[in-house]
Amino acid sequence: MAQPGLITAPGIFDLISARLADRMGFDALYMTGYGTVASYLGLPDAGLATFTDMLNRASAFAHGTETPIIADGDTGYGGLLNVAHTVRGYEAAGLAGIQLEDQEFPKKCGHTPGRRVIAMNDMVRKISVACEAREHDDFLIVARTDARTTLGLDEALRRAEAYEKAGADILFVESPESEEEMERIAGAFDKPILINNVEGGRTPVLTKSRLEQMGFKLAIYPATGFLAMGQALEQVYKGLQQDDVVGATKDHLYEFEAFSRLMGFQAVWDFDKAHADE
């Protein structure tokens, strides 16, 4: 976070997306709650996944990659004691940071309707507990407020300021609805500011150079990967319904041997060779 410039963190949602992104040289990855719940449980991101569900996935992502991962921790999965337990679990799993939000339980995806927030002071206490619970200061606490949509931008900025004072390392004002609002957010704080880029969501998706000019430090793209996957899968599955399957899927498929190497088969092949019968 101390390096100059904007950090781009693509969303990962399963071990294939994690392995692909991990080998591409990004400075950070972002474990998307929406995509993870969808891929793991086939359910909407509406507070249905448990702490155990999310820790299972977060741990697998962390152990399957080398790039630092910031992971969605939803509301902390309960009260203050739950928040402390969640932070310790995510840190022990090998993650670089956790995102906590001020929604009421059950939470909802930040670019969908029906979100409500808890009292600001209750979230301040959650952030304080999260900071106390971590073992190392370099495990980052991302404080997210969803107040913009229902309570307005001024209230969202007031909350972000309170979360900054409570010790959050990165501030995240969800769902600004114009470039003017984004500029206000980016220029309002001394702590690094995260911007959430969701294609088809409530916030304009701008160029990275524009985001950096505004003053944002971390740009996450949680939906890009699974939206691309959905589009690609639908296209090639339609190809399977045609007579000329090879022609219909040509140029849309990852090369099989390369994909096998991506998934770690090289180590299997090397092991088999080393222990082959003479």
TrEMBL record:
UniProtKB keywords: Lyase
Gene Ontology molecular function, alphabetical: oxo-acid-lyase activity
A family per Pfam: PEP_mutase
CDD domains attached to this UniProt entry: ICL_PEPM
Top-level taxon in the UniProt lineage: Bacteria
The keyword Lyase belongs to this UniProt entry's keyword annotation: yes
Keyword Repeat: no
Listed InterPro entries: ICL/PEPM, Pyrv/PenolPyrv_kinase-like_dom, Pyrv_kinase-like_dom_sf
Family annotation (PANTHER family): CARBOXYVINYL-CARBOXYPHOSPHONATE PHOSPHORYLMUTASE, CHLOROPLASTIC (PTHR42905:SF5), PHOSPHOENOLPYRUVATE CARBOXYLASE (PTHR42905)
Descriptive protein name: Isocitrate lyase/PEP mutase family protein
Organism: Pollutimonas harenae
